[in-house]
Design goal:
46% of the residues lie in helices and 18% in strands. The chain is α+β, with helices and mostly antiparallel strands and 118 residues long.
Length: 118
Amino acid sequence: MNKKESRIRRSRQTRIKIAELKVPRVAIFRSNLHITAQLFSPCGTKVLAAASTMEDDLRKSLSNNGGNTAAAAVIGKLIAERAIKVGVTEIAFDRSGFRYHGRVKALAEAAREAGLKF
């Protein structure tokens, strides 16, 4: 089992547990250059809000680097603002099998500071 397969296995287990809770979830994806967060409905079929370092407005303001903790904090704040705008304040944080460390942690803490509860 390689690194990617292990991460996907961990994410599958997490999503099974989150599905039982029946709450909206914020799923993240982290690559070397970018980080993305999506807010899914409780049933998991509809994306209610999304934020990414690949958005044109953010790419210009992040000085060509979306793969650092500062960029992750901006995305965390942005996804929280968009979630509150839709009417969601309590979520489940789906880290997609990534370790709660570095960029993932920065995104989560910024989302908490911006008003999301999880």
